[in-house]
Amino acid sequence: MTKSYDQVRRGASLVDGRLGRRLIGGVFVVAGLGKFSDRIEDLPATLDAAAAANAAGPLSRPTGWLASRPRTVALVVGVPMVATGVAQLSGRSSRLAAATQLGLLAGFSLFLHGSHPAVLPVDAAFAAAIVATHREGGR
Question: What is the pTM of this model?
């Protein structure tokens, strides 16, 4: 029995289905855990840099507020990152998990683009992969 072109194409795609979701899930778990470890990410320094970069603009107050509460930010950001990553690793990912991840990426881009410009293309690539895995994989 021969496979159709669509079956071959779907099987070969890295972001298709389970493999793509698990790769993204693993990255989210590691990044989420990193919010709680200064060895992986110095969150207070990241937030301070964002506050300094956003000091003259409309994001000044919210970014300053976030910078003054790094433990709260670690919980609010790290826990959903780990939870949605675990959901993807276990194969129980949902559209809610994808929407949560997309919201986190949008927030990172909004607050960090001034101090960490590389966040824009990196988060855009992750967002595209998340959308692609859920468009192709359903649920």
Answer: 0.78
